[in-house]
Amino acid sequence: MRGRFGFGHGHGMPPGFDFPRVRRGDMKYLLLEILKEGPRHGYEMINNLEGNFRGYRPSPGSVYPTLQMLEEGGFVTSEQIDGKKVYTLTDEGRKLLDERGGSRFEETPGMKRAFEIRQSLKKLAIAVREGANASDEEAVKRIGEILDRARKEVYSVLAES
């Protein structure tokens, strides 16, 4: 199966770079766990998941509908604070967590490696974007050459393994 960038198992990563998985229906429990620590808005919860689970970053399209469902079920409440919808865990939400037991978040063996590579790619992308905006044509040309060499070296490493 080819990933978003043309290789690997999705997310543009080659085989061996596993990403964490959340079982169907478990998102609500992850969000409730975060809210045990105190009220949060949705974006904070997304960032918290990424920090706590080494790179798992759910899409807003999976988080916000789940929060709405939890609110409709009486497991969380929300209020507008400084223009943001802030969610708070209810007693019913705590009860649901207690009944469920431990977390079922699946950590895969290559998850830490994948997270570290992704962080490096983000840093590189920022540097390249800044360089591409440089007015110096020679600098832009050199950045392109560096990226071409790096790509070839990565493929060389992959060919060896």
Q: List SSEs in N-to-C order.
A: HEHHEEHHH
- First CA to last CA: what distance? 19 Å
According to CATH, the homologous superfamily of the largest domain is: Winged helix-like DNA-binding domain superfamily/Winged helix DNA-binding domain
Which descriptor suits the 3D outline? elongated
**Stretches where pLDDT falls below 50 for ≥5 residues?**
1-19
Strand content: 5-15%
Total count of helical runs of at least 4 residues: 6
**Overall pLDDT:** 78
The helical percent reads: 55-70%
The largest β sheet comes out as: 3 strands, antiparallel
The radius of gyration computed from the alpha-carbon positions, rounded to a whole number of angstroms, is 20 Å
- How many separate structural domains? 2
Strand order of the largest sheet: 1-3-2
Record field, number of beta strands: 3
Secondary structure class reads mainly alpha
The CATH topology annotation of the largest domain reads as Arc Repressor Mutant, subunit A
CATH class placement of the largest domain? Mainly Alpha
CATH second-level architecture of the largest domain: Orthogonal Bundle
Structure description:
By secondary structure, the protein is mainly α. It folds into 2 domains: 27-100, Winged helix-like DNA-binding domain superfamily/Winged helix DNA-binding domain (Arc Repressor Mutant, subunit A); 111-160, no CATH class. 56% of the residues lie in helices and 9% in strands. The chain is built from 6 helices and 3 strands. It has helices spanning 27-36, 42-52, 60-72, 91-100, 111-132, 137-160, and strands at 40-41, 76-81, 84-89. The chain has a 3-stranded antiparallel beta sheet with strand order 1-3-2. A hairpin with a 2-residue loop joins strand 2 and strand 3. Helix 1 packs across helix 4 and helix 2 packs across helix 3. The longest helix is centred in the C-terminal third of the chain and has 24 residues, at 137-160. It is elongated, with a radius of gyration of 20 Å. It starts with 26 loop residues before the first helix and ends with a helix. The relative contact order is 0.13.
